[in-house]
Amino acid sequence: MTPKFGEIYRTKHDTYFAVGEVVTHNPQLILDNVNYIGKKNFVIHIKFGQGIARKAVLMVKMSGDQLPKYLDRTDIKLFADAVTNQELQLMNVDAEELSTFKFREELEIEDPEDEKIAYVASIRENTIQLVEDYLKTLQAKIDKLSQRKANHYFSSKAHYEDVKDFLLSVAPYMDLRLKENQVRQDEWRLKLRLGGQ
Asked: pTM, whole model, 2 decimals?
C-alpha cells in the first residue's frame, strides 16, 4: 500500500505527511580535479542529462500537527535543517521501511493534485536556493583568504569532501518531479573563484 498525497502517518517517534509518489532525479556530479596549482576556478558540474531518475515515495516529518513551512515557501534555513536532520524520507516504492509508517488519517485538501505539484516545486526551489546560498557563503570564506591559501583551498581533502557531501545530501531533491518526462536534461555549472594567475 503506497502512501498517497495528503495522508498522515506515524512512526514509533514521529508524525509524517505523505507527499506520496514522486520521481527523484539524481544528477551526475562532477567536481573539478584540484591537483594543480594556479587554478582560477573550481567548477562543479551538475549534469542532469546524465542523471538517473526513479520512482520513489516521499514522506516529510511534521512538527506537531503542522506541515513543514518549506512545502509552500522558500525557507532555506528550515529546509537545510530538515535535510541535515533527515526529516525528508525518500524511499523506494517497495522499500521495507515503508512498513514502519502506520496510517493515521487523511487531510482534507481542496485541490490535492495542484497542491502536490506546488509542494514538489517548492522542495525543488528550496534545494536550488540552498545550493546557491551554500556556495555564496563558501565563496565569501575563500575570498577572505590570502591568494596562496585560496589557490590551495581544495587541495585539502576535507574541504573537497565537505562540498561533495553537501551536494550528495541535497542531490535527490534538486530535480524532484511528478513524472519522468519532466526531468531536466541540461547541465548546471557552478564556479568558485580561487584567485589563480
From this structure: 0.94
